[in-house]
Amino acid sequence: MTTTPLERAERRKAWGFAxxxxxxxxxxxxxxxxxxxxxxxxxxxxxxxxxxxxxDNYAAFFGKPHLLKALFNSLEVTAxxxxxxxxxxxPLAWIIAERVPRRWQRFALIMAILPFWxxxxxxxxxxxxxxxxxxxxxxALMWTGLISEPLQLSANRVGTVIGFVHFFVMLLTLTIYxxxxxxxxxxxxxxxxxGANGFQTFRHVILPxxxxxxxxxxxxxxxxxxxxxITPQILGGNNELVLPQVIMLQxxxxxxxxxxxxxxxxxxxxxxxxxxxxxxxxxxxxx
Amino acid sequence: xxxxxxxxLSRRMLLATAAICAFSASASAQEELNALVWCxxxxxxxxxxxxxxxxxxxxxxEYEGTGAxxxxxxxxxxxxxxxxVIDGVDVPRAVDMGxxxxxxxxxxxxxxxxxEVRMEANNTKDGKIYAVTEKFGxxxxxxxxxxxxxxxxxxxxxxxxxxxxxxxxxxxYYLPMIGLTGLAIGKKTADLTADDLPAIKEKLFEMKKVARxxxxxxxxxxxxxxxxxxxxxxxxxxxxxxxxxxKPNLDWTVPxxxxxxxxxxxxxxxxxxxxxxxxxFVQYILSPEGQSKLATSSCYWGMPANSKAGEQLTxxxxxxxxxxxxxxxxxxxxxxxxxxxxxDAAMQDAWTEMLQH
Lengths: 287, 357
Prior knowledge:
The structure holds 2 protein chains of 2 kinds. Chain A is built from 12 helices and 2 strands. Chain A is mostly helical. In chain A, strands 1-2 form a two-stranded antiparallel sheet. The longest helix of chain A is centred in the first third of the chain and has 35 residues, at 5-39. The mean pLDDT of chain A is 90. Chain B is of the alpha/beta class. Chain B is 41% helix and 19% strand. In chain B, strands 1, 2, 3, 6, 7, 8, 9, 10, 11, 12 and 13 form an 11-stranded mixed sheet that branches. Chain B has a two-stranded antiparallel ribbon with strand order 4-5. In chain B, strand 4 (124-125) and strand 5 (128-129) form a beta hairpin. The longest helix of chain B is centred in the N-terminal third of the chain and has 26 residues, at 4-29. The radius of gyration of chain B is 23 Å and the shape is globular. Residues 1-28 of chain B have low confidence and may be disordered. The interface between A and B is medium-sized, with 29 and 31 residues.
């Protein structure tokens, strides 16, 4: 097929616009990624990193239950956080979009994203104080007589999940809200005309139409949660390790860069699988 | 007229560049010293007097654990670093790697260092000095004496009973903790081998069951201060000494089975291009003034290695450091286990396994 000079000029122009982004991606993602992938097949022997091609790091990871458990801990915590965040964020986004007057919605959204303005580390340490034995949560529960002894809400998975949920509920609220406000009121009117009650309208019309927003938020939550090191480190009390913590142990204590690279690659594979699952699902919904 | 904008911009940029160059030139006139250190050296109260006295800027890079420190060195160019603070038991590793310079014996106050912590076997080789002990202390038991029975703290076996279940923090550093666990089962740290690890691992698992958390220096100290836990195994004067005024309820002890003794040494990199200045820095750190400031550094307290530092410390500081009890403590404590790469990896594996247990 022949192309006209105009088309060729347009194509060159398109490449010209795309080139900076392409160079950026190659330089700051592809090259470091390939380098990391290569290192993951090297090995640390004694104090030396030896560039010999081996699967030892992967064999060690899959052969040592305490390392493999870190992956399962990561997946479990991420799944719990994602589900709880969706369950909390959806009603919040719906209230902001449907019940808060238009002129107050911007203020409500600012209030929702306020936690993003605080340092992640400071926020986690603040939660540590809030959830401690003498913290406001335990004090309130004891004051109401619901408990007689303080509950252990930090230095365990509960603390990690609470810290994560606080952060990700806001993220999901934004993505779901963006979806909800785009819905035409005609959908609801049409459903009502056809005899659907409020729940049926939500179940068969609103929810399916807002699923893309939920999935985008859920995917972002998944990626950020499974790769996070700070919250489990501060709120988890090292009582169960997630994969990023194990990666940090390899780097900080052992200086075992090949092993850390192998674990990072495992993490990337998990994220890629999650992306493919989401992308496929979203595509199905659109058709 | 449009052309004047870029022209003006260029002139401004030229002037700005010239100003930056002039600033850089004046900045570079001040000599710089690059030191790879532990966090106690980052206290301005310690560093600023040396900087002012020598018109030098000391650039400090903090690291935790010898593995991480040596890794930084391996990835740096020769000459990038001038001064190295390293765990006393790991000095021979650094000497064998050939990264430390011989220090001039006549310029060091080695005679003033407490004899028990001179550690000649570690700091010297073939009669040459490569590092000098600058600070020491203990990984032992810190506790809130208003919430626990101090008598219970005299016996390590309390960490394998349910009496204080859920009220204990374990210090997250595998070497002293494995050493302490070894002491509890009657193994000296110097004799630890891979064969001892299964028994130690079992003990670590049991210990984890009664512990509330396993945490780093800051988190474990915060937990003790806030009342979240009442005991830290692995803690020592470095947890409580700096808090004696605000928290007189916090205390520490060396149990009957003994404890671990940490000691940090300071040396100069062989490839440093500023040997004289680096030695001057070492001399300052080892001087009574430097020692008293290092001992009471805002990051953590510890005993100064130089016995003359006592002249610079207040009575309150000496009480907090248990200055008078050192002979007794030194007798009942052992150095960190000295491990080769394989045993080190096996110990880290055991510790990680405990964290996941």
